[in-house]
Amino acid sequence: MDNLSPHSIQNSFVQVRKYKNNVFLLYAVIFFNSLLFVSPIIVPFFSIFGGLTFSEIMSLQSIYILSNILSEIPLGGIADFISRKFSLILAFILTLIAIFFFVAIPKFCMFIFGEIFWGFAASLISGADKALLYDSLLATGREKDASAFIGKLYTFKLLAFLLAAPIGSIISSTVGIRETMILFLAPIGFALVLSLFLKDSIQKQSIQTKSYGKLLISGFHILFKKKKLTLLFMDALFVTMVCYHTTTTYQQKLLLLEVNQVHFGWIFAVLLISEMLFLNVHNHLMRNFPSKRRCILFLYCLFAGIGMIFLAVSSNLQFICIGIILVAGFGLTYWAISIGYWQIFIPNEERSTVLSTANMLQLMCVVILNPLVGYITEINIFYIFVFSGVFLLLWSIFSPLRGDVLSNTQ
């Protein structure tokens, strides 16, 4: 065995300590990056400060998603082939630039640039944070506990969302809507500064041998080759597409009812808590009633539809909150719970590709439907909620998912 000098041992100890510090730094970085004060009042921001119509607001959301999709592969490669740390730093710089476009001049074209830069930033962060976390665990011999550490990373992210929701609405109602976006510069600035102290990974990834196009073709082939997998995917896609708009349209309804903006953040927090709570409820149901998969999906779809009807007909804030709880808890979680049923039909070596393809198809549908939802909402917001509610109620009854489809799912 080679003898190690005291200097070498000391250097090794310092390196391990720096990688241990990486874990806590990453928690803090993601926490500050997720303090989105403007999330619960994004519709008032664009409509009151920006003077946009609701269809324009929904179009901006599509632009953000599209820029994120198109830049995911080329910008995601920065983390693998250049530097995880650099990818995060560049992401926060682009977020700061995006905020400048949002607050500088209230013009639609300026907001477009803001959404594009923010989409690019999301692509740079996507995967880089978790990859650097895993590399840090690998360097300190704790890679076996990666799932727990990644779970904590998501916990800090959700905690930031929950804290930012009431804080953002309070800032908006007391200081101003534009100022709420401006103050987001502070946590992003903290995230940027903290990311400078991260120790970068020494891991280098090999370049993908498959092109993006080939990966998509492979994912498409598997998704639509097996009938049961196709039915499960299409069921999840239809329900999700009918529910996704609620995170934005409920804010428009609150605006039309002239609800005080101080309530927006608390209602957004209720939405987030409902999603987290009902995801865990589903896990509990599956452990206790594994043979009732069709019944559970039926109930999730049914209660989401009832929630939409509440949102359509209610002008009372308490009943609107009930509608949001039902749609968020049963509808917005539908995609996540459904994916668990797909796994047995997907070859292990193609699992990542298939799930990525399904996610991309879902996002592309959002890009296409957003402007349509905005247009219908401008005509009468009642229509969008009623249509969604009636569709979900009918789909819960006439869904093609029968016992034989779900009989051997996990």
Write a compact overview of the structure shown.
80% of the residues lie in helices and 0% in strands.
Which features would summarize this protein structure in a list?
Growth Hormone, Chain: A, globular, 410 residues, 2 domains, mainly alpha, 0% strand
Radius of gyration (Å): 23 Å
CATH topology name of the largest domain, in short, is Growth Hormone, Chain: A
Total number of helices: 19
Largest sheet: none
Low-pLDDT segments: 4-13
Strand content: under 5%
Structural domain count: 2
Kindly, what is the distance between the CA atoms of the first and last residues, rounded to a whole number of angstroms?
A: 49 Å
Shape: globular
Q: Quick one: CATH class of the largest domain?
A: Mainly Alpha
What is the strand tally? 0
CATH superfamily of the largest domain: MFS general substrate transporter like domains
Helix % is over 70%
The topology string of helices and strands comes to: HHHHHHHHHHHHHHHHHHH
Which structural class do the helices and strands define? mainly alpha
Mean of the pLDDT scores?
85
- CATH architectural designation of the largest domain: Up-down Bundle
